[in-house]
Amino acid sequence: MPMAARIRSLDGRVVSANAGNVMHWARHAGDRVWRGEAILAVGRLRHFTGNPGLRGDSIAAERTLDELR
Q: Which candidate, 24, 12, 20, places its Cα nearest to that of 68?
C-alpha cells in the first residue's frame, strides 16, 4: 500500500516529501487505524528537523498535534 509506505517510513526524505499528506490523513482519514498511524507519523515528523527535514514541517506537525488534542 502506498499510503502505508509513506506513513510508516523512517526515511527523512520520504517523510519530508509527504509531510502535508500525512498531516491531512491525521485529520481526515476515514479509517480510525490509518488516522492513528498518521498521528503517530506526525509525532515522528516533529523531530525530523535535520537534513533533509525542514523546520517548517516540524512546526506544522506541532500545530497539527495541538489541533488534534
A: 24
Chain center to CA of 58 = 9
Q: What is the model's pTM?
A: 0.82
On whether the CB atoms of residues 22 and 6 are closer than 8 A, the answer is: yes
Model confidence over 18-51: pLDDT tens digits?
889 999 999 999 899 999 999 998 988 888 765 5
Task: Print the SS3 string covering 44-62.
Answer: HHCCCCCCCCCHHHHHHHH
Spatial separation of the C-alpha atoms in residues 31 and 13, rounded to whole Å: 26
